[in-house]
Design a protein that fits this description.
Rossmann fold, eight-stranded mixed sheet, 12 helices, 12 strands
Length: 338
């Protein structure tokens, strides 16, 4: 069997009857040399073999953080990896790429019901950084639930973002692997930099240590500085592009809806200071009026509780009321410039 082109090689992998072919040397029917692969291709396979062994051999779950600049090929790289590592991924690719917590949890439920072993799931932010805080909080809770529900199926969950610093600490501290993706000038490859995420169990560290991933190759342990992985075959890349294009209008609609809700919330949360001051002056004793050494004092806590307003507004109302009562200042002065 001769496969000279790396692209053909990747396209052929998902169609193998034995998904561990090329990943588990003990089960492979052909050696890398017989396949006619170059060293950089073998190193890429070594990286995939590491990912494969974590879930299939060591029977562990794997949470991977992936970042890189926009359009660097992050998602396409993991689509390629998903097709190689999970024999059910290519058929269900549209389901396995999640852009929101609801879809992610529905997928987890489906995987659990069908008992799909070693599933690969992609969680792609896909522009959700425009409303990052709420989105990341929901996804963090969803990932924790997923690892609890389908942990026995040894999933590989990949979190894709433009910058890992955007992720909440709860997600980062659960991750086992960090992968940075750089674009290749030819746009035919993704340049992948993989790192182990190491935490010292004896210390409460705020920052982990990142160690280069090492693979066994030619009887030696080799540190992976950079792995070149080709883009997926055209028919798979086209399917992902269609999925991405389908999601953009939904994301835009959600963003517009969020902005609209935010405006409505601001209107609802608007606090009428002038009306509040009128109410306090109408019945100051109800708001904790006390006279200390001929000086009238208001109770900020009572004002805050009666109006259910923030501390800043309550303090401002207290001082304005005291100036009106003690110094005889016209209350209109406070609102003339507003």
């Amino acid at each position: 069997m001769e496969i000279s082109d790396w692209g053909d090689f990747c396209e052929y992998i998902p169609k193998w009857e034995n998904p561990s072919f090329g990943l588990n040397p003990g089960e492979a029917r052909y050696s890398y040399r017989e396949l006619g692969l170059e060293q950089e291709h073998i190193m890429a396979l070594g990286f995939f073999r590491y990912l494969y062994n974590v879930t299939h051999t060591q029977k562990l779950s794997l949470l991977v953080l992936t970042d890189g600049r926009h359009r660097s090929g992050k998602s396409l790289f993991w689509v390629t990896a998903g097709c190689i590592l999970d024999k059910s991924f290519e058929k269900n690719m549209e389901e396995r790429v999640c852009y929101d917590a609801e879809k992610f949890l529905n997928l987890v439920q489906k995987i659990n019901d069908k008992k799909i072993p070693f599933p690969v799931i992609l969680v792609d932010e896909a522009g959700n950084t425009l409303n990052a805080a709420d989105w990341y909080e929901k996804m963090q809770k969803s990932i924790v639930k997923a690892l609890t529900v389908i942990g026995y199926l040894h999933p590989t969950i990949i979190f894709i973002t433009t910058n890992r610093a955007l992720l909440l600490a709860g997600v980062r501290k659960q991750a086992h692997l960090y992968v940075h993706v750089k674009p290749d000038k030819s746009r035919k490859f993704s340049r992948v930099l993989p790192y182990h995420i190491k935490w010292n169990p004896l210390k409460m560290e705020d920052k982990p240590r990142y160690k280069k991933l090492r693979i066994s190759m030619y009887g030696r342990r080799i540190a992976l500085d950079c792995v070149k992985v080709p883009m997926p075959p055209k028919h798979i890349a086209d399917r992902y592009a269609a999925l991405e294009a389908d999601m953009k209008p939904k994301i835009l609609a959600e963003l517009i809806d969020d902005v609209t809700k935010s405006k409505i919330k601001k209107v609802k949360d608007f606090f009428d200071m002038q009306n509040a001051l009128d109410q306090i002056l109408l019945s100051p004793k109800a708001f904790g009026l006390k006279t200390i050494k001929n000086t009238k004092r208001m109770d900020e806590t009572i004002i805050r509780m009666r109006f259910k307003c923030p501390n800043r507004e309550a303090l401002a109302l207290k001082k304005m009321t005291e100036q009106v009562l003690n110094d005889g200042i016209d209350k209109k002065v406070f609102f003339d410039e507003i």
